[in-house]
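Task: complex structure prediction.
Instruction: return structure tokens for all chains below.
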Amino acid sequence: MTFIYPGSFDPVTNGHMDIIERSARLADKLIVVVMTNTNKKPLFTAAERAGHLRALTAGLPAVEVDCWEGLQAEYSALKEADAIIRGVRNCTDFDFEMQIAQANKLLRPETETLLIPASGKYACVSSGLAKEIAACGGSLRGIVPDLVIEDYYRKRGDK
Amino acid sequence: MTFIYPGSFDPVTNGHMDIIERSARLADKLIVVVMTNTNKKPLFTAAERAGHLRALTAGLPAVEVDCWEGLQAEYSALKEADAIIRGVRNCTDFDFEMQIAQANKLLRPETETLLIPASGKYACVSSGLAKEIAACGGSLRGIVPDLVIEDYYRKRGDK
Amino acid sequence: MTFIYPGSFDPVTNGHMDIIERSARLADKLIVVVMTNTNKKPLFTAAERAGHLRALTAGLPAVEVDCWEGLQAEYSALKEADAIIRGVRNCTDFDFEMQIAQANKLLRPETETLLIPASGKYACVSSGLAKEIAACGGSLRGIVPDLVIEDYYRKRGDK
Amino acid sequence: MTFIYPGSFDPVTNGHMDIIERSARLADKLIVVVMTNTNKKPLFTAAERAGHLRALTAGLPAVEVDCWEGLQAEYSALKEADAIIRGVRNCTDFDFEMQIAQANKLLRPETETLLIPASGKYACVSSGLAKEIAACGGSLRGIVPDLVIEDYYRKRGDK
Amino acid sequence: MTFIYPGSFDPVTNGHMDIIERSARLADKLIVVVMTNTNKKPLFTAAERAGHLRALTAGLPAVEVDCWEGLQAEYSALKEADAIIRGVRNCTDFDFEMQIAQANKLLRPETETLLIPASGKYACVSSGLAKEIAACGGSLRGIVPDLVIEDYYRKRGDK
Amino acid sequence: MTFIYPGSFDPVTNGHMDIIERSARLADKLIVVVMTNTNKKPLFTAAERAGHLRALTAGLPAVEVDCWEGLQAEYSALKEADAIIRGVRNCTDFDFEMQIAQANKLLRPETETLLIPASGKYACVSSGLAKEIAACGGSLRGIVPDLVIEDYYRKRGDK
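Output:
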């Protein structure tokens, strides 16, 4: 089976890594797809985010990393994906993911959506939280992988 | 009874049309009101949106279309509306609509809010989804009425 | 328009009365229907509940009271109801009502469901709460109509 | 991959069949497991339910049907299941499934839970709804498979 | 401040103990109240449950344990409690607790309700889960305190 | 006990005042903290908002007002706060607050979060609603304190 795990990953969090590790065991191939069509000004460029994901998944042979500017359903069709993987933490996430899942089913019926319950310890972890903590100068330890923390400070030092 | 159905309708979706058709049967007059006080840059102007709605409801004699820049409660008072109609798809919608309904009740106690359950097949359909699919060049067929799709491509062709 | 408001009404609460008064203004006829097909041992018999509702709605000429043992959709068909009215207080209510509404739509497409937001002050009021308070010997004042309180104590005195 | 799909299936609904057909395409083996440890008096015996499922999945070679009286986590361990499949329709379902998923993860960390969004048209379909409609003498057409409807009437006729 | 933490505690779980330890630090006195007015056949008698709680909170000087058959609001009045403490795990819990909190406020305005977010690792833990695992012969380790596990097996051995 | 109640308070609403009055009775000191690190263009400056809060809490000796640009967890550490107070109205609020609470627990384990159920009559009241009504020229009476209404019109008159 080929699964895709689309997201902004800006930045990759420990919650994302948990979903990747758990779903990689269920697929022959898991393509983690950095979606680049968002309007929001990113913390990291799509190439940087893909770089983080490649480094962090180096030990997971089933995982590939890619970038995509367009609809998830188009990417699913291109890769003939069997399923789209998404992590869910709470009802607000769930309502959002159900809408996206139904839309993707409408646009590309051959690809299912599989929602993976977030681990309890990552229930608060999100890219948005990481950005807010970083903006306030707080510590990201335990929220995003060390590699991403280092890159974040290296980038800030550059400026 | 006079019901009003306020919304941005940017663009009108098949989900909106389903709510209009179902609620028009319950009222002597149903005024579909294009709200124009939003800050968001619209896809279609208020006049264009009202035009779409007028064309799409031409066969529904109980339906009128209007535009309004202001509070829903003020428009309800102006038209002596008996009820405001809103479609709801999920809990996130519901929490939002409950707050608006309670606020409208506070500002204009004579007008009730009636929430109509979205049809299952339109549970994912929203103006936001339509905009996102359009921005990615995907097909809007089945999500917004054909008339709106044609107008969207005509507008893009103009530019 | 003919609306029906089905429920167990065991006992009628001030929250039910609020929904009845608000929706009676929107219909030519509002039939409050005591559903009797539940397995739960009732506090009041269906006839007693209908009696309470008749007394409490005596001043509302649009309101009729009836009893029904069967599906809501069958009763809707029998009365050619245009809509079923249901009050909703929170997401748990909403999820439940959405399922019932979709089932009723499947069984009887001609009848819509209209969800009315419960008034803030009745957000905690339910027949279940009333039963629990009564079982503990607490005061039902403000939760159910005085007429129902009196009948409750009269019944207990009988035993 | 081996997936299990546990449930009471009393009776099997069209919503269950939709989840089975969709998830069977994602697994090498999908074991549909009739859980028999519930206290509720069943409509059909576990053997009857398993019979319905076997007949209904005869065309799906990846699907096996089994019965189990015990914890899902124990069955997962016995079959070395890679994932447990569960359908979700709304937030109430979701909150329930998240708790079960976390409990199963605690008891058997090697097995993931994958939540599959119910199709919009089956959002109201449940075994509970089917039982209620059947108890009121309503039509189950479109809610449960024809085979189950026939068996239900055959059983009633027996009595 | 005097806080009360009412519950069935049948059995006490590690999730309950987490709420007790966290809220005991916020009060001069925290009274854990075993509510005994439920209809459900209990696993442990009220006296046994109070015994478990007393043993488990022996090291927390601010904590008292009591039993009560009646309304929470009456107990709050009796003890002049400043607040009722309740743990919440998800939206379903939240909707339930909001109703109870509003009812308690109505019956006893001087006592507030404070909802404490359950720790992520206890998001699945409940007395109901413990009972279900126990009924299936599964291990309760990590879900309820060891003392409760031992007492559970001692009781079963008695029979 | 020292509690903090962080928020934007732009503007202070009657819902905020209700939470302040109710939680002030539960603490030796309640610090209402105007958070100033938001990107949104405020209606009132942080100093103006703090001024409103100081005037409105003048009769509550346990209440202090402060401003903070940074993480809540840092402020909690600085003041050695025992708990963070937050009002919750519905599931959408709840999901958001649960994430913030878990993040604050991660960053500063010594400080608990206590969620206080919003009063039914303030279930629709928010700073966002107040801003929207103000922008449309509607009346803020009953939604924000009179003092804030006056200051709002005084500021508009200045321009």
